[in-house]
Design goal:
- By secondary structure, the chain is α+β, with helices and mostly antiparallel strands.
- The protein has a single domain, classed as Ribosomal Protein L22, Chain A.
- It has four helices and five strands, in the order βαααββββα.
- The chain has helices at residues 18-28, 31-39, 43-61, 117-134; strands at 3-9, 71-73, 82-86, 93-102, 105-112.
- A five-stranded antiparallel β-sheet has the order 1-5-4-3-2, with helices on both faces.
- Strand 3 and strand 4 (93-102) form a beta hairpin.
- Helix 2 (31-39) packs antiparallel against helix 3 (43-61).
- It is globular, with a radius of gyration of 14 Å.
- The chain starts with a strand and ends in a 5-residue tail after the last helix.
């Protein structure tokens, strides 16, 4: 079973201006992912969520030579299990994906699509608890 996890600072891109955020959006995200990001109330935070989800999916797939636009994330809200697909020169692969906020961090987890969604939710809760505990925050 491939498992991928990524943890990012939710405010990592807040210091960038609108033009820089747009360049980041264009370079790293597919058209569908861009639509989700720009529909969110905070574009900088949405980009962090998106890149964290891409990183988790990339790790779960285990193909080190992938480019970000070769991974398509079906972006959804916090705690919603969704999917990631791999296209391009590699065989099509799918992962289940979910993300959550943990204090000032974004935690994304991805597992093979055959893994039960309940297991993914348990992993997410354990990961979130560990991040909060490590940062001295209560749940």
């Amino acid at each position: 079973m491939g498992v991928g996890m990524d943890l990012e600072d939710a405010g990592a891109l807040q210091r960038f201006d609108a033009a820089a955020l747009q360049r980041f959006l264009q370079r790293w995200f597919t058209v569908a992912e861009r639509s989700w990001c720009v529909a969110q109330p905070n574009l900088a935070r949405a980009l962090v969520v998106g890149i964290s989800c891409k990183e988790a999916a990339h790790k779960s797939i285990g193909a080190p030579d992938l480019l970000p636009d070769q991974i398509q994330i079906d972006m959804a809200g916090e705690g919603v299990i969704t999917s990631a697909r791999l296209h391009g020169t590699h065989a099509i692969s799918r992962s289940r994906l979910v993300w959550t906020a943990a204090g000032s961090a974004i935690l994304a987890l991805a597992v093979d699509s055959g893994v039960d969604p309940g297991v993914l939710r348990q992993l997410l809760q354990l990961g979130r608890s560990a991040v909060l505990r490590n940062r001295g925050l209560a749940e």
